[in-house]
Hints:
Blueprint: H1 2-24, E1 44-46, H2 52-57, E2 60-64, H3 65-69, H4 76-87, H5 89-107, H6 111-123, H7 133-136, H8 138-144, H9 148-155, E3 167-171, H10 176-187, E4 194-196, E5 200-203, E6 206-211, H11 217-229, E7 236-240, H12 245-248, H13 250-253, E8 258-261, H14 264-267, H15 295-321, H16 324-333, E9 336-341, E10 356-359, H17 366-374, E11 379-382, H18 387-391, E12 399-400, H19 405-417, E13 422-424, E14 435-436, E15 451-460, H20 475-480, E16 485-491, H21 498-501, H22 507-522, E17 525-526, H23 531-538
Parallel strand pairs: 1-8, 2-3, 2-7, 3-4, 7-8, 9-16, 10-13, 10-15, 11-12, 11-13, 14-17
Antiparallel strand pairs: 5-6, 15-16
Helix pairs in contact: 4-5, 4-6, 5-6, 5-15, 15-16
Amino acid sequence: MPDEKMMAAAQKFVFSNLLSILFHGSGGDAPPDALPPHPSEKVCIHRRAPPAARLAEATALVVDVDGGLLLSRSLFPYFMLVAVEAGGFTRGLLLLLLYPVIACAGASGGGDVAVRAMAFVAFCGLRAARFRAGRAVLPRWLLEDIGLEAFDAVRRRPLGAAGKRAVVVWASRMPRVMLEPFLKEYLIADAADVVAAREMKVLWGFYTGLMEEGDGEAASEARKKLMESTVVGDDIVGFSGGSMEFLRNNTLSSSCKEVYVVSAEEKRKWRPLPSHEYPRPLVFHDGRLAFRPTPLDTLAMLVWLPFGAALALARIAVAMALPYRYATLILAATGQSWRLRGSLPPSSRSPSRGQLYVCNHRTLIDPVYVSIALNRPVRAVSYSLSRLSELISPIGRTVHLARDRAHDGAAMARLLDGGAHVVVCPEGTTCREPYLLRFSPLFAELSGEGVVPVAIAVETAMFHATTAGGWKSMDPLYYVANPRMCYTVEFLGKVHTAPVRNGAAASTDVANRVQRLMAAALGYECTMLTRKDKYLMLAGNDGLVGAKGPTCQ
């Protein structure tokens, strides 16, 4: 018995010290829930939002991103996004199981302990060079979480000394690799701005899961930057939320002359930042999750996964075995529905030649729903399609293109001359946001009678059916694994392409016209961005098969 007691005591001692090293830093650090001494005689703390006039007088601004800019009080969804999108569902399950401990630590004042624990689970073992969630996944969810009132206060950036634009320090408890790409892409408007966030430690090219000790080197560098950019007597104003975590960061808060801490009651009255007021349009976004992974929503997803996998296989079997009119009825009963907006297009006047349908590209199965709406077989053309996607396709074999204008044009022309109805997506890649990428004008040079634009919209409840950096062969499986989803298909009026063949109009003019017609029907915006722009941003390559690019962080 004494040996057992001694062993239990030793295990408890080792375990407690291991937690201290992992989440607190070195053993001599102060407990994370202890408020460090604060020079209150120098820093004036206000329990309200900063007045616009006060911000206009300040020469520098320190923004607490977690508490002052974001509406949500918990950082758990962002770490869960990293865990699932970069590490997989098993890592997400582990983080969810740890949530009760994280919640208790946060409620008892150990906010930094909770952040370190979540960072450890989300990052430990990930390859640093391949991490892209900070640039490709998180920006959409961070933008949706910004408070309009906070954003209005921050974007009225004051003028600093000598009429120069004031320095803004963006402080956060999240790791720099999670936050900095979002800030630089959407919020930072001046090269002098500083991101004060801790680094994740890397060993042999992999994240260890440990963050920098204390406030991190970035906080010290930010304070040095503030001192260099201001003169004696200048005002440095801090802006935080209802939490006291920002005040515990003595490195930055002690640099401020005043700190405005918005109360939780006042913050609940804030409104989300509307998408039309985003500093930059969010055109590209990656990741499988179509919902914000709060603890309850994450639990629902993980419980659904085995049922969703079985339902996906059943849905595929029904779609491949039964005719459209029967399969769609059965699939609708399982939550996989579609709807036709408007009416079907008139039949082609040339029975010996096929009709060319031009649609925007939302997922790989766009041609399937065009075929279902027409109730007749169509031929799809695609640059790259996995063997699995082609195997489970209910519309037959896809024609592969080579991104060679002469080769691809001849291939589609042969199909049309043979009487096949062809579906083409001139964007060249999928876009899940309400934007249309630039249309390739090749389709306008092929059809004699004209082309039929098809406007397509997709709604999913749990998973996105597209990815730029994940396993593209799983795209259709993720779509049919959703508990509910709906395709909307709308056939627009035929656009004549005879002027292109006669030399009276440029093919680019016709392509742009079709793009504008689709955008008007869908309520989307037209862009001149291309497939290459998408993959360079989300995956760090040009989107070609087998291409490898630098890290997108």
